[in-house]
Specification:
The complex is a heterotrimer. By secondary structure, chain A is an all-alpha fold. Chain A has 6 helices and no strands. Chain C has one domain: Peroxisomal Thiolase, Chain A, domain 1 (3-Layer(aba) Sandwich). Chain C is globular. Chains A and B meet through helix 1, helix 2, helix 4, helix 5 and helix 6 of A and helix 2, helix 3, helix 4, helix 5 and helix 6 of B.
């Protein structure tokens, strides 16, 4: 039980800090949402490739995988595994294979909700 | 055109602008991003653990289910007009998690729905997600090529 | 002609009638009771927001024609514009209205631009009655210039809120003893000014130098000082832009008296409405002019008004290409009715 609470605490704190860094960048460098998303994914790929990110995933679980850095990390992980298995072809197949579920879900639900819902004026 | 009479970068004026433009409340913004981002990750962990326990999935599969479910939540909340309110409060706290990625897709697709199903929804779906995939996938392929030649 | 940029209008064109149409949020603001029409639905019952903005534009124009007691056939020209690509809101309104139409783009300065051009056309004798109008809609502007509406983004404190509204003003050269009306005495056409501001979420900062430049030019050309005006109304500088504008005027040695400078962007919303730096958009200065300023001039509460709407002349493309934001301000002097 104590172990579970400790795990969730780690998830909360690490996830929170990763978001907080994003907020800091947005406020201090005038980076907009699109640039933050792109920056996080790209950085995630690099951190994953050099092996810095996987230990964080082991440590904080969803706290490290839910932020978009985790998406980048999955891309890198998939590519590296596929390259080890299939050689150069893996560089092209590994990333999308590892992240297929998330990307496909985003496209599918994005289309679905766009058809069903209409945007409303901001409050 | 540069340096014409009416287009001069006026450093003195830009300093005045900096002085008179109020800054966002940094501490408040950081705290909000922290706790909302943290809560979203905790929800992700709950989904992940539930998938592992109830569906008896492997670690990798549970991760994928988590991604799908979180994307669904992000899409749903965007569709019913809630996610933009969370975003107004939390900023990066709800942009950085994968739900924010879903939000960027659904919001763009909804916005351009009235411009048709192909060039409206179909094309604009990727307005913000497109660059994310381009740079994410592009970098990962580069990583793969380097790994292949360096030999990992 | 007067000085370098000002036209003195010998015929003193008459402001015959004016009307404004806005949406719910504007209707809940401090000027809520003064607008002619307040829509409660942000689509105005139309299928999309572009049509909704066209509808707002037409509402203002039609109501203005009605208030003037004439028919659309009596109007020689309609001069108007909005913020959208190819001016779709006003062009499509022109399609419905059947009035000879001149489309104008001056970003948020369009109301002053159309009044200035209209007054000069009257002065030239090319027309005897025309309509000047401008509109903006929050949702069409957000899509064109910013992010999709449902994106969970934050707006910085310097950001302004695009007003969903329209205003229309009828000007003519017909004086009647029965109905004394405000007159236009001078117009000053501004130059695009760019001091290197690139932040599209800080329009007030981009526009303040244009406002200061046009005002200085106007005062030099007319040999007047700020105290010659009861009210100097800037278009939509917002809180940040207004502070910068007042500071620039101080630096130029022509300080404004605080209570005489008002800003339409600060008048239309109250601070509780959470619009950050204030309102913006063509519809901001247009609807405030028609709802608040012109009625005050008509009643004599404002003897001499300098109406100076400001516009940021960037496009999403120019912003993406890294250009800084050029801005413009046009000034129109409106005086209380003459005792004919």
């Amino acid at each position: 039980m104590l172990e579970t609470i400790w795990m969730y605490l780690k998830v909360f704190v690490v996830g929170g800090i990763l978001c907080m860094i994003g907020q800091f960048l947005m406020l201090k460098t005038k980076m907009n949402a699109a640039r933050i998303l792109v920056g996080y994914v790209t950085l995630g790929v690099i951190l994953g490739a050099v092996g810095l990110y996987p230990p964080l995933v082991t440590f904080a679980g969803a706290g490290a995988t839910i932020p978009l850095l985790g998406f980048g990390n999955s891309l890198a992980k998939g590519v590296l595994e596929a390259v080890a298995e299939k050689g150069l072809l893996g560089a092209f197949t590994g990333g999308l294979t590892a992240t297929a579920a998330g990307v496909a879900a985003a496209v599918f639900f994005g289309y679905l909700f766009a058809i069903v819902c209409t945007p409303k004026m901001k409050v | 055109m540069r340096g014409s009479q009416n287009k001069q970068k006026d450093e003195r004026y830009l300093k005045l602008v900096d002085k008179l433009t109020p800054n966002s409340d940094l501490a408040k913004g950081l705290i909000r991003a922290f706790w909302v981002g943290g809560v979203i990750c905790v929800i992700g962990q709950l989904v992940n653990d539930a998938a592992k326990v109830w569906l008896a999935l492997s670690k990798d599969d549970a991760g994928m289910v988590t991604a799908v479910v979180m994307v669904f939540f992000g899409s749903l909340l965007t569709g019913i007009g809630v996610y933009d309110r969370i975003g107004k409060y939390a900023g990066a706290g709800s942009i950085v998690p994968i739900t924010g990625f879903a939000n960027s897709i659904v919001a763009s697709a909804m916005e351009f729905r009235r411009e048709g199903l192909v060039l409206g929804v179909g094309a604009k779906l990727f307005l913000i997600a497109g660059p994310v995939l381009v740079y994410g996938i592009g970098t990962s392929i580069l990583v793969g090529i380097i790994a292949f030649f360096v030999g990992v | 002609m007067l000085g370098g940029q000002t036209a003195l209008l010998e015929t003193r064109p008459v402001v015959d009638a004016w009307a404004s149409a806005v949406c719910k949020k504007e209707g809940e603001g401090p000027l809520g009771d003064l607008f002619d029409m307040i829509h409660t639905d942000d689509t105005m019952g139309e299928d999309n927001w572009e049509k909704a903005e066209t509808r707002l534009f037409m509402d203002a124009v039609k109501r203005c024609i009605e208030k003037a007691g004439v028919t659309s056939g009596d109007v020689r020209m309609l001069l108007g514009g909005d913020l959208l690509n190819q001016l779709v809101a006003s062009n499509f309104a022109g399609r419905e209205l059947g009035i000879p139409f001149i489309g104008l783009f001056g970003a948020c300065s369009t109301m002053a631009e159309s009044l200035a051009v209209g007054a000069m056309i009257l002065e030239s004798g090319s027309a005897d009655r025309l309509l000047c109008a401008a509109s903006s809609h929050f949702c069409t502007a957000e899509r064109q210039f910013r992010f999709p509406l449902e994106m969970g983004t934050q707006r910085p404190p310097s950001a302004q809120w695009t007003v969903t509204g329209a205003g229309a003003v009828m000007v003519s050269n017909r004086r009647t003893v029965l109905r004394p009306r405000p007159v236009i005495t001078h117009v000053t056409i501004g130059k695009p000014i760019d001091l290197g501001v690139t932040d599209a979420t800080n329009m007030g900062a981009a526009m303040a130098p244009a406002a200061a430049d046009t005002l200085c030019r106007h005062l030099m050309d007319t040999s007047r000082t700020p105290t010659d005006y009861d009210v100097i109304a800037t278009g939509d500088l917002g809180a940040v832009g207004s502070a910068l504008f007042e500071e620039l005027m101080r630096e130029k040695g022509m300080p404004l008296l605080a209570h005489r400078h008002v800003d339409c962007g600060l008048m239309i919303f109250s601070p509780e409405q959470d619009v950050h730096s204030g309102g913006s958009g063509c519809g901001c200065s247009a609807s405030v002019l028609c709802a608040d300023l012109l009625p005050k001039v008509q009643k004599g509460k404002i003897g001499r008004l300098l109406f100076m709407a400001t516009g940021a002349l960037m496009s999403p493309v120019s912003a993406n290409e890294g250009e800084s934001i050029p801005s413009i301000a046009h000034a129109v002097v409106i005086e209380r009715p003459e005792e004919v």
